From TrEMBL:
The keyword Transcription regulation applies. This is LysR family transcriptional regulator. It holds the Pfam family HTH_1. Keywords: DNA-binding, Transcription, Transcription regulation. InterPro entries: HTH-type_LysR_regulators, LysR_HTH_N, LysR_subst-bd, WH-like_DNA-bd_sf, WH_DNA-bd_sf. It comes from Acidovorax benzenivorans. The keyword DNA-binding applies. Residues 11-63 form the HTH lysR-type domain. Belongs to the LysR transcriptional regulatory family.
Length: 320
């Protein structure tokens, strides 16, 4: 890439060792010899007078000094990308790459639809989308591996700028002919009488659901537990019962009338937020800035209004 010519060779080699965790793997990715990589890293260590890596049996991990230098090198690489992108944008937004890392729910329909919409106006823009856990999305942004993180969060993160944030309550999803589909909001007690499919316990939606159940003294026995949301959604579509989700994840299917969504009227169900994250202090390339604006507008569009929690305590249902 043209931007790589704007960076010092030693820093580029050093940063690739940080990313890959070994000199040999870095050399393969850079298409150079391992000795060339070792010489560049050694030159940096001699210049700074400190070891930049802890040498371990299974690879190399950056030392405290190495972490500081890596942060500087990542920012330099990103700034070089931005300069090249902005120079190209002087001729109009004809080319560019937007790198996104997102939680799984956003990648099912929301992001593909918004990317396709963006390319109608800017057909020369390319996208790279990687799906990861919410915490891994933030790490990808911090490491410079993604320009934009689209994820769920419950707390602030150091060195992360939140470009947009909105409540992402847990909702119940069902077929439009389900017995509870007449209601726009329901309680956990109402859900308890019906078969339910749930994500695994490491899912943020499931965690908030479990907290709400604990507060109400309700024990659900799911008929299906799965770590793949599309499986849960198709189980619902085939008449298997209820499930839970975030609003953005099922927005398109609800608008097409394939699913009915009802907010769960319980405390704590809105204790997470959808966020668009970028690296603090970074000037974003033109293509990234413009796509970020579209993402902000699309996330706000049809976002479900918050439902206040009930003030009265729901009756405790017996264990099924």
């Amino acid at each position: 890439m043209l931007s790589s010519r704007l960076q010092d060779t030693a820093l580029r080699y050093f940063l690739e060792v940080v990313r890959s965790g070994s000199v040999s793997e870095a050399a393969t990715r850079l298409n150079v010899s391992p000795s060339a990589v070792s010489r560049q890293v050694a030159a940096l260590e001699d210049l700074l007078g400190v070891p930049l890596f802890d040498r371990r049996p299974r690879g190399m991990a950056p030392s405290a000094a190495g972490e500081l230098l890596a942060a500087h090198a990542r920012r330099g690489a990103l700034e070089a990308d931005r300069v090249v992108s902005d120079i190209q944008a002087l001729q109009g937004l004809r080319t560019g790459l937007v790198r996104i890392c997102s939680s799984a729910g956003f990648a099912i329909e929301f992001l593909p639809r918004v990317m396709a919409q963006f390319r109608l106006q800017y057909p020369g823009i390319q996208f790279h989308l990687r799906v990861a856990s919410p915490a891994a999305v933030t790490v990808a942004v911090l490491n410079g591996d993604a320009d934009i993180g689209v994820t769920y969060s419950r707390s602030a993160e150091r060195d992360i700028t939140v470009q947009h944030r909105q409540a992402a309550p847990v909702i119940a999803i069902m077929r439009p002919d389900h017995a509870l589909a007449r209601s726009h909001s329901i309680t956990l007690a109402q859900m308890h009488a019906h078969p339910i499919a749930l994500p695994e316990r490491d899912n943020t939606v499931r965690q908030l659901f479990d907290i709400g159940c604990s507060q109400r003294g309700l024990v659900f026995e799911p008929v299906l537990v799965c770590n793949h949301f599309e499986t849960l959604m198709h189980f619902v579509l085939h008449g298997g019962g209820l499930s839970i989700s975030g609003e953005v994840t099922v927005r398109d299917r609800v608008q097409r009338g394939e699913l009915h969504a009802a907010q769960i009227r319980e405390p704590g169900m809105s204790a997470r937020a959808a966020e668009l994250q970028t690296l603090s202090g970074r000037t974003l390339p033109a293509a990234v800035r413009m796509f970020l604006q579209l993402l902000q507008a699309q996330l706000r569009d049809n976002a479900a209004p918050p439902v206040p929690p009930r003030r009265t305590k729901a009756p405790t249902a017996p264990h099924p």
